[in-house]
Specification:
Layout: H1 10-19, H2 24-29, H3 36-45, H4 47-53, E1 62-66, H5 72-79, E2 83-87, H6 97-107, E3 111-114, E4 128-134, H7 143-153, E5 154-168, H8 174-180, H9 184-187, E6 193-194, H10 195-204, E7 208-213, H11 219-222, H12 227-236, H13 244-251, H14 255-268, E8 274-281
Parallel strand pairs: 1-2, 1-4, 2-3, 4-5, 5-6
Antiparallel strand pairs: 5-8, 7-8
Helix pairs in contact: 3-5, 7-10, 12-13
Length: 285
């Protein structure tokens, strides 16, 4: 069944993506290709998850994966020893709770699947050591309510890692973001907010914001690009004068030069929908 306004459902939009050979790379980048298990295994081994892992509490415990989608984060958490609750409002067997159940059955991992929304979490207070939300905050119908709920279900000293949320520089840029997003025109569910909207919502929830990760700062945001591909892309955008691009590409292989370049570009990066990530803790450990 099609959604209102002539658009399709999220499940239908992804099914169309998978059926289009010309967009196979996009399907792979979004971890929609292959089986749920194959996608989870690939995500667990990719640079994005390796970077996320470094932000986690030192000991695995109870984790909540909000907006779990197809279950790639739930899989990665469970494989790393966490006991996982996966919350997903869509029952779809392709991109929702049904897919996560298939994944849990295939692996035998301790993944509890719950259907629901982050604004009303069906969990008792202080249950989780870690909450992970990958590409979730920008989908919230009420961002502040969602984050208050995250604060409520975290244990004192527990951590929120919110990853890959779309940021715009001003509200007027939202239309431009919608225009470039590859799936928004089909299902209409994408959103983006100014950076201060995310940070103020996190802080007003009672959580302590400990880190804001800029778009080019970590593979958490720029994956599936590798660091080498990112630096090559930067070099290609520099003036093509007297082989300057080749020199720049060589210089950018230096971690010190690359770090300086990223800091400089961060000040000039105003792309609508660029990705930010956030780390926040519940005080009181």
């Amino acid at each position: 069944m099609s959604a209102s306004n002539g658009r399709v459902t999220w499940e239908q939009a992804v099914a169309e993506l998978l059926a289009d050979p010309e967009r196979a790379a996009l399907a792979r980048d979004c971890y929609y290709d292959g089986t749920e298990l194959e996608a989870g295994q690939r995500y667990w081994g990719d640079a994005e998850w390796q970077a996320v892992r470094k932000l986690m509490p030192p000991a695995a415990g109870q984790a909540l994966d909000i907006g779990a989608g197809r279950g790639i984060v739930s899989y990665a958490l469970a494989r790393d020893g966490w006991r996982v609750s996966a919350l997903e409002p869509d029952p779809s067997t392709l991109v929702g709770a049904g897919a996560i159940r298939k994944l849990a059955e295939a692996t035998g991992y301790p993944i509890e699947v719950c259907e629901g929304h982050g604004e009303r979490l069906p969990f008792v207070d202080g249950r989780f050591d870690l909450v992970v939300a990958r590409q979730v905050l920008h989908h919230a119908s009420d961002l502040r309510s969602l984050l208050r709920e995250v604060h409520r279900v975290l244990k004192p000293g527990g951590r929120l890692i919110a990853m890959r949320d779309h940021v715009i520089s001003r509200e007027a840029d939202l239309g431009a973001f919608h225009t470039v997003h590859p799936l928004h025109q089909r299902y209409g569910g994408e959103h983006a907010a100014v950076l201060s909207e995310y940070t103020s919502a996190i802080e007003s929830s009672g959580l302590t914001l400990t880190r804001v990760i800029a778009p080019l700062e970590s593979p958490i945001n720029y994956a599936p690009l590798t660091n080498e591909q990112l630096m090559d892309g930067i070099a290609q955008r520099l003036p093509r004068v007297l082989g300057f691009n080749r020199v720049a590409r060589s210089l950018l292989r230096s971690s010190a030069v690359a770090a300086c370049a990223v800091k400089l570009l961060a000040r000039m990066d105003h792309r609508p929908g660029r990705l930010y990530s956030f780390v926040a803790d519940r005080p009181g450990a």
